[in-house]
Amino acid sequence: MGKVVALEGNQAAALAMRQINPDVVAAYPITPQTEVVQEFSQFVADGLVDTELIAVESEHSAMSACIGASASGARVMTATSANGMALMWEVLYIAASARLPIVMALVNRALPGNINIHCDHSDSMGARDSGWLQLFSENSQEVYDNLIQAVRIAEHLDVRLPVMVCYDGFIISHAVECLEVLEDDIVRNFIGELEPVNPLLDTDRFITYGPLDLYDFYFEHKRQQMEVYPTAKQVIVGIGKEFGSLAGREYGLYEGYLLDDAELAIVTLGSSAGTAKEAVDHLRSDGLPVGMLKLRCFRPFPNTEIAQVLSRPKAIAVLDRSVSFGGFGGPLFTEIRSAMFENETSPHLLNYIYGLGGRDIDVEDIEGVYKDLQRVVDTGNVERIINYVGLRG
Amino acid sequence: MKVKPDTGWRDLPCGGVIVEPGSAAEYPTGDWRTYRPTRDENKCTNCLLCWICCPDSSIMVEDGRIIGIDYKHCKGCGICAQVCPPKIKAIMMVEEERSSSSKGPM
């Protein structure tokens, strides 16, 4: 269908942005996202897009400019990482509360204490309550596919929310992989024209964005916003199917890998899902009943879908590439554990924190996790609920 | 879509936007007031300094003369009394409890 090219993850993101041809991009460079803005700037300079590129002085301004442009009725994109998104913090919430369909590539990077530029998910997890939808990508192909679908999801009239497409810094962003890309006109037909809702540039209707909203209306506005996330789940699934019929790669809220008959399961996000698939193949060839659940959509959180798909395994390990200091386990673990409470079965549920600050996780590491699960099932004994992978003792 | 004080969450415009221009006029900021400006018509020279300085457009003027104070919106900031020329002193700030008409609709 499309053509196969070899690109770094960031180049795949920039290519998707070129094909999407947004009206406005406001961005500030930060490692490991820099290349996205750099490549896209070249497309602007070469006249390959019609985009107004706003070179801002900080990420706070980047997101603020995105909000202004989006409220005015433009199709808007940006990209950032870690501390860059931390600097956007207060405006992230405003983008979601104002229901503005901004699409952002978030190249996952540790949010330090002690300087670190490498991958973990602490940046996206910090923003999990901001109201943005969060899609995680396993590889460059998914970065490309997710960004294109994100435009449709964000702008869907039943959704109207900003979407961040998350992918692992360096592991995906700077690794060259082969991916299949669509023709420009196919992408443009798929995303269509933006249908602005309440654009500020409509001079016949006067709209106020972000007014004072005190105890007499604020609560109702938050409740109204809560209502959209279950709908967003359906829209994400619908657009994932439509994309599948177009590109031959269908997407849902999650991807199960040999999960149907699995008794030992791992749940994970991002690039480590690829590593886990390798481990599953190895262990399956040894006869172990293992499977893997890759969560594509972290926000909205598919709680009922997860509870259903994880109802069979006897032991489950949730892999978290971030920590919640002072919490009980990582953010993915606590949500999965909460979702599983509705099930009649109660499998052993363990948390494995891994990969902080870019620490590598390999196939043997994940095989080790499965072997832990096997031991738990055999003995009925859980030594520790919260565990660490690849950590020196 | 008309938003009223008792409008429920389902019926509010999406994204917290306001779609009716000028609707701030319907917000009775007057109930924030603890001190009420009272104007002595006999002293007032209609110099309109208070009208210029009022941040809430609460000094009501017709044909160049002050006809009253809009207590529905006046927050009682006291700027009008402050800018009223010292020789005139036509506006005094009076605590709401001591004002004769402080209760009831404004």
Topology of this structure?
The complex is a heterodimer of chains A (393) and B (106).
Chain A: E1 3-8, H1 9-20, E2 24-27, H2 34-45, E3 52-55, H3 59-72, E4 76-80, H4 82-87, H5 89-97, E5 103-108, H6 122-126, E6 133-136, H7 140-155, E7 163-168, E8 176-181, H8 184-191, H9 218-226, H10 228-247, E9 254-257, E10 264-268, H11 272-285, E11 290-295, E12 297-299, H12 303-309, E13 315-320, H13 331-340, E14 348-353, H14 363-379, E15 386-388
Parallel strand pairs in A: 2-3, 2-4, 4-5, 5-7, 6-7, 10-11, 10-13, 13-14, 14-15
Antiparallel strand pairs in A: 1-8, 6-12, 9-11
Helix pairs in contact in A: 1-2, 1-7, 3-5, 7-10, 11-14, 12-13
Chain B: E1 35-39, H1 49-53, E2 59-62, E3 65-69, H2 79-83, E4 91-95
Describe the structure.
- The complex is a heterodimer of chains A (393) and B (106).
- By secondary structure, chain A is α/β, with parallel strands linked by helices.
- Chain A folds into two domains: 3-247, Thiamin diphosphate (ThDP)-binding fold, Pyr/PP domains (Rossmann fold), CATH 3.40.50.970; 254-388, Rossmann fold (3-Layer(aba) Sandwich), CATH 3.40.50.920.
- Chain A contains 14 helices and 15 strands.
- Chain A has helices at residues 9-20, 34-45, 59-72, 82-87, 89-97, 122-126, 140-155, 184-191, 218-226, 228-247, 272-285, 303-309, 331-340, 363-379; strands at residues 3-8, 24-27, 52-55, 76-80, 103-108, 133-136, 163-168, 176-181, 254-257, 264-268, 290-295, 297-299, 315-320, 348-353, 386-388.
- In chain A, the strands form three sheets. Chain A has a seven-stranded mixed beta sheet, with helices on both faces. Chain A has a six-stranded mixed beta sheet with strand order 9-11-10-13-14-15, with helices on both faces. In chain A, strands 1-8 form a two-stranded antiparallel sheet.
- In chain A, helix 7 (140-155) crosses helix 10 and helix 11 packs across helix 14.
- In chain B, 9% of the residues lie in helices and 18% in strands.
- In chain B, a hairpin with a 2-residue loop joins strand 2 (59-62) and strand 3.
- The two termini of chain B are 27 Å apart.
- The A-B interface holds A 97-100, 160, 197-198, 205-211, 213, 216-217, 219-221, 223-224, 227 and B 3, 5, 7-10, 12-19, 21.
